[in-house]
Amino acid sequence: MTVVFSVAFPLFALIATGFVAGRARLLGRDGSGALNVFVTWFALPALLFSAIANVRLSEVLNLPFIAAFGLVIVIVFALGMLLARLASRARLAHMSLHGLSAAYGNVGYVGIPLCLYALGPQGAVPAAAVTCLGAFLLTFAMVLVETDLQGGRGVWRTAWRVLSAVARSPVLIAIVLGGVVSALGVKPPVPLQRFLDLIGAAAAPCALFAIGLFLSDTAIRANLREVGLVTIAKVLLQPLLALAIVPWFLPLDSVWAQAALLMAALPTASNAFVLAKQYDIFVEETSATILLSTTFSVFTVSAMLVWLRVGF
User: Fold this and answer.
1) Which domains occur in the chain, in start order?
2) Is 250:68 a contact under the CB 8 Å cutoff?
């Protein structure tokens, strides 16, 4: 139980602090947006660039990890789509957002801090790899939604437009640039590295506080049966599936395997809500899923930490 109090408690306490601050309106109307900009444009990119630039590229391109975690999220995404079809005879756009909410974990705002606190600085590299996998999943879901809404016309043009939009993410750009620096075999100059360390250190606490602010404006006004199914798929099915699949690809005592299992226990990402809001599909359900999955991930993340016996 020590690991729960040393790792899980500080993380979820920060989320709760952000939630309370949001409810009390301590940061004003624009506080949440400003903090999100800082996290996504400055702190997380600095952290991930530094993490990747300072290791060998071969350590980043861990194909067994990519295959294992990629297989887990693809299966959960497909099952999420199937559940939507069986539960409500939903069309493709709705099914896609249902699948995304079930499979797309909150890596940037919860997963990266979790890996850093549980696994140490080396946990940032597998977190970056999962960020890239999540970007591919998000792109695929957006293409499916656009294809359905446009009646199947211009699929390739739609795919290119969506991929171009996702590729402009500052977090993904930082990961790619870090990979380039790593491939060149050079290290960031000391002054730059110290700058990256300073701003990157703010990523974890600010991200956790920001997700609390987001949840403070979230309420459950949706079909609880449907929300419950998606939440179960995210915080229960995905970790169990990871426990079954990951050991076939990676030794369980490796940082990569431990990161994969921790990432599988994450709640639904807030980006799923952004996408649902953009298309005005599955909006209330996605919002409620994020709230419920974040609440229940307190238990799934804690259980995974205890099972892995990681933390410091």
Assistant:
1) 2-308 (1.20.1530.20)
2) yes
